[in-house]
């Protein structure tokens, strides 16, 4: 009986030893799994934080670039508007220049006609001034003859009314012309002409004739000075250019 009891004791010790090894292994595996899970969780969290931070930085960079681009677009729009204004001003100045050029050309043409450097032809008005009938009872016969003042009155009125060119007895009048009365004749630029004196003007016939016939105007003054005045409107008038010294 004592021998049997002695044999069972080693078996109990081995069993307890094996059981403690198994538990140790189980705890070790569990500890490893828990440690691995924790480290994996930490790694995921750090990766998530890094990814979120990187995305936020990228978003901020894109936002700044967008703002810069919008500011640049504003500057470019302002620059385009300035260029468009410059182009419009240039176009306007060019159009004004063309219009002014046409005006200058017309003015130059009118000056050439006035100076007599160009031959001219057109419709116009003929005004003839003739000495009045002498009244024997008058003390001064000069009260019945045409003087240079009468001729100047007609010429000035015709120019004011738009005459482009004027001639006296076929002789062209220019800017430096002079008219002098010597008794029954007048001298135009050194050339003498007896009465009657025919003053031709190229221009709008109706306008020229109407200006001469204004009440209290030139024609009435001439008649009051005993001058015989006749007018013929709508005539075709031709005037040569003045001969200039070379």
From TrEMBL:
Secretion signal span: none
Pfam families the record matches: DUF881
Keywords: Coiled coil, Membrane, Transmembrane, Transmembrane helix
Transmembrane segments: 21-38
Coiled coil regions, renumbered to chain: 59-93
Stated family: Belongs to the UPF0749 family.
Family annotation (PANTHER family): UPF0749 PROTEIN RV1825, UPF0749 PROTEIN YLXX
Identification of the protein by name: Division initiation protein
Source organism per UniProt: Planococcus massiliensis
């Amino acid at each position: 009986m004592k021998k049997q009891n002695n044999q069972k004791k080693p078996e109990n010790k081995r069993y307890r030893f094996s059981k403690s090894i198994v538990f140790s292994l189980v705890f070790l595996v569990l500890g490893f799994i828990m440690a691995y899970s924790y480290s994996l969780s930490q790694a995921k969290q750090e990766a998530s934080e890094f990814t979120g931070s990187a995305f936020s930085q990228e978003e901020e960079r894109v936002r700044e670039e967008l703002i810069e681009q919008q500011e640049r677009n504003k500057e470019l729009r302002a620059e385009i508007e300035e260029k468009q204004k410059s182009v419009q001003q240039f176009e306007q100045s060019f159009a004004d220049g063309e219009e002014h050029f046409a005006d200058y050309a017309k003015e130059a043409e009118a000056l050439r006609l006035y100076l007599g450097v160009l031959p001219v032809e057109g419709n116009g008005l003929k005004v003839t001034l003739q000495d009045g009938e002498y009244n024997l009872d008058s003390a001064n016969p000069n009260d019945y003859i045409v003087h240079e003042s009468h001729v100047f009155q007609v010429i000035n009125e015709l120019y004011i009314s738009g005459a482009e060119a004027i001639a006296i007895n076929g002789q062209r009048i220019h800017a430096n012309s002079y008219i002098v009365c010597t008794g029954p004749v007048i001298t135009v630029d050194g050339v003498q002409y007896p009465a009657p004196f025919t003053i031709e003007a190229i221009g709008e016939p109706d306008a020229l004739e109407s200006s001469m016939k204004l009440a209290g105007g030139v024609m009435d003054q001439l008649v009051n000075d005993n001058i015989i005045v006749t007018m013929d409107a709508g005539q075709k008038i031709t005037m040569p250019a003045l001969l200039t010294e070379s």
